Amino acid sequence: MSQIAVNDSIDADSAVEAPSPMAVALVQLALACGGFGIGTGEFAIMGLLPNVAGTFSVTTPEAGYVISAYALGVVIGAPVIAVLAAKMARRSLLLLLMAIFAVGNIASAMAPTFESFALIRFITGLPHGAYFGVAAIVAASMVPAHKRARAVGRVMLGLTIATLLGTPLATFFGQSLDWRVAFTSVGVIGLVTMALIWYYVPRDQVAEGASFRRELGAFKRPQVLLTLAIAAVGYGGMFAMFSYIADTTTKVAMLPESMVAVMMILFGVGMNAGNVIGSWLADKSLMGTIAGSLIFNVVVLSLFSLTATIPVMLALCVFLIGCGFAAGPALQTRLMDVAADAQTLAAASNHSAFNIANALGAWLGGLVIAWGYGFAATGYVGAALSFLGMFVFAASLRLDRRARS
């Protein structure tokens, strides 16, 4: 196979041949492997907090600060790395990002104190958003335009499979053996991903005219900011619900504690289904998929609050809310469309926006619970956020139509 230039576009007059379906599949597999490792590393800590707390002699709530440290790393790292690495070839950048991730997780397993552990988790979170953003651009650049969202969806499939398979396994072995084993394993996945990227992702050249200033120009584009706002506001609802699913299951639906794991599995199944279906729909109608997912979220999150006392309905709603991840590939592809020549920063910032949605949803859900409205009311919070997201989407659509007229 001849060398493939992976850039924003491929010059039709160049001698570069289109990659074979097998080559494309191997690239997507390599990139998805990184997503699997990142997803496993991000979510496994939630089930291992008591173990971490015991090791460092802190309370479980105090141990929870490491989750915030990682999320802060994601939010800060995505735009900063995208700008600083503007003049790096994308294959080289992917290798660097995965190296930081792999070393960070192995170092996490070796942390001698709680303070060092929290700092290392912050550093480990830095490459998260940039990796997914660059991986999405690389995957989309290797397929025809009408298959871009599905290519992005296959990369993100690694993340959704992690919620279903990687996280439970890492949690199980971390609890059975030692939590340090879980992070060491995630680090090994990072090293394997580096090998796969090295062998299967084709070498590329830095895009002509790439610069820090050009990447920063993404934030001067109203459509980029509006799309990020849709993600940050419109999809906080899923996190408002999921952050408190344990108490909703046991204290509202009155189910045994063992059913919490079942609800988490149902949520993971929903995320995988939403990712596959949503990426297919996005290739048919990108804006229609985003709009439809927001309306869908308003309905199912409201239904969650109305029926949370009924175990069967709670299970169904948790699955359907997980399906709301259908917007992930669509929003990532939309950002690549509206960012023009600043795709790396825009695509990487998508995951910063989702982490903001995570923090916003959990915070607002906690407020409603503290005000005495109960755990089931988190669904109404989520529905309200999705409803607000519809107004942001409407503004984006109006701007699109104005530009075309």
From TrEMBL:
Sequence intervals crossing the membrane: 23-45, 65-86, 93-112, 118-143, 155-173, 179-201, 222-246, 258-278, 285-304, 310-331, 352-373, 379-399
GO cellular component: plasma membrane
A Pfam family the protein falls into: MFS_1
GO molecular function, one term: transmembrane transporter activity
Family annotation (Gene3D superfamilies): MFS general substrate transporter like domains (1.20.1250.20)
Keywords: Cell membrane, Membrane, Transmembrane, Transmembrane helix
Bilayer topology term: Multi-pass membrane protein
Classification via PANTHER family: CHLORAMPHENICOL EFFLUX PUMP RV0191, PURINE EFFLUX PUMP PBUE
Segments forming domain Major facilitator superfamily (MFS) profile: 27-401
UniProt-listed InterPro entries: MFS, MFS_dom, MFS_Efflux_Transporters, MFS_trans_sf
Location in the cell: Cell membrane
CDD domains: MFS_NepI_like
The protein, known as: MFS transporter
Protein source organism: Rhizobium grahamii
